[in-house]
Write a structure and sequence with these properties.
40% of the residues lie in helices and 16% in strands. The protein has helices at 3-19, 69-77, 115-127, 142-153, 175-178, 194-211, 226-243, 254-259, 261-269, 273-277, 281-284; strands at 29-34, 40-46, 54-58, 81-85, 135-140, 159-163, 184-190, 216-221. The N and C termini lie far apart (85 Å).
Length: 285
């Protein structure tokens, strides 16, 4: 075949390939979630494609669902689904008031009522045929505390990812939830934020004592917190955790166990003395 003919055939094949439709992932759907206490919450829903898991995304104090845009792309790339929610008083969910006017204190203040936002998000996914063991709750800052409290009320969700949580944000307290939740837990904190890192470490150890070592993952970076920590440093680690939130069980090392029978066995079952020291006794009573 002459070189010119070959060139013409190759050009025709290339042109036909360019004309074929590209199979793109479906676009996220704008949805409205209605809570039992009368809030209309704006949300974006992206169904999962190749994976079964769908992640509920709960933003930080003063933020909105669009803060997760970069992380959402990483989820979609891996085939996971997501439901990003504007918490009450934030973003487009301000029909009943704005968060700046919410009472800051009280066990039943509007920030604590955000647990209904989390529950409503779970109910929405259940209505789409998604089972609880295919749902993960992920929050940053205030959203992390809300995610923990939601898991206390919906304990069969597959896991919770808490990015820059604190022991108290607007009286939203995650410790009682972590003392009961036995699913997979991921906690991430910045070592550059000394107070936040210490509090996240306390939460990590509470989760460790409840759910066990194999169910708890702790991530850290030096600077940035909340959404910036997620985007700049730990997106890939969190996405990987979403795929396998529980550490695989490994067979004990018989030789190592025989050399150090007490230390090896005890550390596999309970927190070390250092870990226990990080947990104030009031949290364990």
């Amino acid at each position: 075949m002459c070189a010119k003919c070959f060139k013409n055939i190759w050009f025709s094949i290339l042109l036909m390939g360019m004309m074929l439709p590209v199979q793109a992932a479906p676009k996220a759907q704008s949805v409205t979630l209605s809570t039992q206490d009368g809030w209309k919450l704006a949300a974006e829903y992206q169904p999962a494609t190749t994976k079964e898991t769908t992640v509920i995304l709960l933003h930080d104090f003063g933020k909105k669902k669009e803060e997760f845009t970069s992380f959402e792309r990483a989820l979609v790339k891996m085939g996971f689904g997501y439901l990003a929610v504007d918490l009450r008083g934030h973003g487009q969910s301000t029909g009943n008031g704005e968060y700046k006017k919410f009472a800051r204190e009280g066990a039943d203040n509007p920030f604590n009522q955000m647990v209904q936002d989390g529950q409503t998000a779970v109910s929405f996914l259940r209505s789409k045929g998604i089972s609880l063991d295919q749902i993960i709750l992920l929050g940053t800052g205030l959203g992390a505390n809300v995610a923990a409290k939601t898991a206390q009320l919906v304990p069969d969700v597959n896991g919770i990812a808490l990015i820059s949580p604190n022991v108290n944000i607007r009286d939203v307290l995650p410790v009682p939830a972590l003392r009961t939740y036995k699913g997979a837990v991921l906690i991430a904190a910045s070592a550059g934020d000394r107070k936040g890192f210490l509090e996240a470490s306390i939460l990590r150890n509470v989760a460790f004592l409840t759910a066990g070592e194999g169910n708890v993952t702790f991530l850290t970076a030096y600077d940035f917190t909340g959404h910036e920590l997620l985007d700049k440093y730990i997106t890939q680690s969190v996405v990987q955790w979403i795929g396998t939130p529980r550490k695989p069980e490994s067979a004990p090392d018989v030789k190592a166990a025989s050399l150090q029978p007490h230390t090896g066995v005890q550390r596999s079952q309970t927190a070390s003395q250092t870990e226990q020291a990080l947990v104030p006794s009031v949290l364990l009573d």
